[in-house]
Here is the input.
Amino acid sequence: MDAAARDLVVEEFPGYRLLDSGQGDKLEQIAGHRVVRPCPQAVWQPRLDEAAWAAASSRCVRTRDGGGYWQHAAGDPGERILRWPAGGRELEWAVRFTAFGHCGVFFEQAVIWDRIAARLAGRRDARFANLFGYTGCASLVAAACGARVFHVDSARGVLDWGRANARRSGLPRDAVQWIQDDVRSFLKLSRKRGFRYDGILVDPPSWGHGAGKSGRGKKAETWVFERDLAALVAACCAVLSDQDPFLVLTCHTPGVQHAALATVLGDAAGAAPASGDLGIRHPGDARVLPAGVYAAIGI
Here is the structure.
């Protein structure tokens, strides 16, 4: 990937449209449902008129304590389905509107899924790890391409969500191992047992708790991005395969730029990573909504 093509921008996504953004919000059409969600990056003025924004059926409101809630004009829309093609099949993902304003899919990751699918094509023996994997969109894409997938997250709820998506998509029951664990513990055990991965996607949060070990007297470990990132990336590189591996590191922590990720990954991998911004393009105009940063080797 050359320097002129570093940014990864989603141009289209089946069942999803970024209709407009501005004044700290974004207006989206998600699985047939028009919503307004907070978006601090949208510091410009909206392009659409007030009527277009007022037509949204649901609006997510953030609270001062960092939480949030939804206002639904016509009641909670419940679960909706998005579809994504991968590995010769159509995957199905359930969309739900959660209190934090999430819906189960991070749309800016779509370009990364396509690149992962391209790297795994024809490699039926490949092992792929999705760390901080959330509801498992990337995991299902990798599994549809024939990889053996290890999906790691500390939250039982999102693991159950991912399992349901895998069943809905018709994937074999053993296509993905859904692992509730602290990512650092998973990597430590992988290295101890000599496990290696041909590809790793890691999308760490700004802050969080790992999975606790109930009944063993071990408390859940706290994750702090600025403190723990370098050691985490080094641990990922230590379990990469020697045969043409890839690693993608993404970040949504405010204030972190892609050059910082590239430095961390370059130091750990001993190679010069590609890096850039993640974004989603508005239909009908040239604006790109910033949606995080990434650094990668092997894609």
The chain has a mean pLDDT of 93. The longest strand covers residues 288-297. The two ends are 7 Å apart (CA to CA).
